[in-house]
Design brief:
This protein is mainly β and 147 residues long. The protein contains 1 helix and 9 strands; from the N terminus they run E-E-E-E-E-E-E-E-H-E. Strand 4 and strand 5 form a beta hairpin.
C-alpha cells in the first residue's frame, strides 16, 4: 500500500472551496492520511503553488507530524508538529489567492525515517535538503482555485 493524502473538501484535481482561500476563512482544509509506512518516524507537508507569477509559492510548511496522524483537522494542526514561514511571511496556512487565472495547489506529503531538528524560520530549500535521502514514501493531493 502506498501513502495516501485526501480531503473530503475536494477531490484530487478538483476545485478547492473558497472557504479555504484568501476569499474565505483562509483556514486549512481537513486532510486525511492513510497507509503511512510502518517504519515512518515523522511526516512533512508542503503546500505550494507552482503556477505563481514569481515562481513556486509556498503556502504552508509543516514538519514532525507524528506518523500516527490520520487527520489534520480543518483550521488546526497536531500539537507536536512544527510550522515554518510561508511565502506570505506568516507561520501558518496561507490559502490560495491567485492574482489571475486558475492555479494548482499541491499538498505534498512525505513519510520520513527521521524527525527534523529545524528552526521555525527554516526555508523550503533547507527542508528539502534535510529530507533528501530520508523519504520512505510520498504522495500529492492537487486542488485548483480561480478567483
Amino acid at each position: 500500500m502506498a501513502l495516501e493524502l485526501t480531503s473530503p473538501e475536494f477531490e484530487d484535481g478538483g476545485k478547492i472551496p473558497a472557504k479555504y482561500t484568501c476569499d474565505g476563512e483562509n483556514i486549512n482544509p481537513l486532510l486525511e492520511i492513510k497507509d503511512v509506512p510502518e517504519d515512518c518516524v515523522s511526516l512533512v507537508l508542503i503546500v505550494d503553488d507552482p503556477d505563481a507569477p514569481r515562481g513556486d509559492w509556498v503556502h504552508w510548511m509543516v514538519w514532525n507530524l507524528p506518523p500516527t496522524t490520520e487527520v489534520i483537522g480543518e483550521g488546526t494542526l497536531p500539537d507536536e508538529a512544527m510550522e515554518g514561514y510561508n511565502d506570505f511571511g506568516e507561520m501558518e496556512y496561507g490559502g490560495p489567492c491567485p492574482p489571475s487565472g486558475q492555479h494548482r495547489y499541491q499538498f505534498k506529503l512525505y513519510a520520513l525515517d527521521i524527525d527534523l531538528e529545524l528552526d521555525e524560520d527554516t526555508s523550503r530549500v533547507v527542508i528539502e535538503k534535510e529530507i533528501a535521502g530520508h523519504i520512505l514514501d510520498e504522495t500529492m493531493l492537487v486542488g485548483v482555485y480561480e478567483r
